[in-house]
Automatic annotation (TrEMBL):
Signal sequence bounds: none
Lineage, highest ranks first: Bacteria, Pseudomonadati, Pseudomonadota, Alphaproteobacteria, Hyphomicrobiales
Matching CDD domains: GST_C_3, GST_N_1
Protein name from the UniProt record: Glutathione S-transferase family protein
One MF annotation (Gene Ontology) recorded for this entry: glutathione transferase activity
Length: 215
């Protein structure tokens, strides 16, 4: 089987890239990585030449191009059904898809106020309306799934659903947004994953600064 290629942007800032990269790396899927850095304010023409949306992440497998993080994870889960990107049980797969889609489509207040930034020193900021509700909902999702599965990840073993929430783990951490013991324990589990550590090391070594994401 031909090895897929994953196009991503800056590891320090690109939450959308982090999700599929974490999912594929964390489950041992072999892929090629191509990083095309952000180039604000006009955008990077190299991204526009690769991606039909002008954005990343994008997975290329032969002539096929798949964009959007969750679509990439779902496609690779079909390519490698034994990798563990999706839980094995039908009910668990349905739940994983539900919470992953909710992550993809919701929590706009949190995303806007607290951009992902691996290098940012930990510290609180003033939070606009809506962020506390987003935090509460995410904590509820995590708590319910961890109680059902027994942990240490949302569905027991690491899966694509955990990867979908990886940028939130960074946001909760660097903006000091949460204090519940169960939330903090899950965050520490995620941050200890070898894939997370590999991404973090590369992000901290990057030279690029994106002013829009420095809060």
């Amino acid at each position: 089987m031909d090895k897929p290629t994953l196009y991503i942007a800056n590891k320090n800032y690109s939450s959308w890239s982090f999700r599929p990269w974490m999912a594929l790396t964390g489950t041992g899927v072999d892929f090629e990585e191509v990083l095309i850095p952000f180039d604000y304010p006009g955008g990077n023409p190299d991204i526009k030449a690769i991606s039909p949306t002008g954005r990343v992440p994008l997975l290329q497998h032969g002539a096929l191009k798949i964009w959007e993080s969750l679509a990439i994870i779902e496609y690779v889960a079909e390519l490698y059904p034994d990798a563990g990107l999706l839980p094995r049980g039908r009910a668990e797969r349905a739940l994983a898809r539900s919470v992953s889609m909710e992550m993809l489509s919701s929590f706009r207040a949190l995303r806007s106020a607290c951009p992902m930034n691996i290098r940012r020193p930990k510290g609180k900021i003033a939070l606009p309306d809506g962020v506390d509700a987003d935090i509460s909902r995410i904590e509820t999702i995590w708590r319910d799934l961890l109680q059902q599965s027994g942990g240490p990840f949302l569905f027991g073993a690491f899966s694509g659903a955990d990867a979908m929430f990886a940028p939130v783990v960074n946001r909760f951490d660097i903006y000091d947004l949460v204090s519940r013991n169960d939330t903090l324990a899950y965050m520490e589990t995620m941050k200890a994953h070898p894939a997370w550590r590999k991404w973090e090391e590369a992000a901290r070594a990057e030279p690029w600064i994106v002013a829009e994401d420095e809060v």
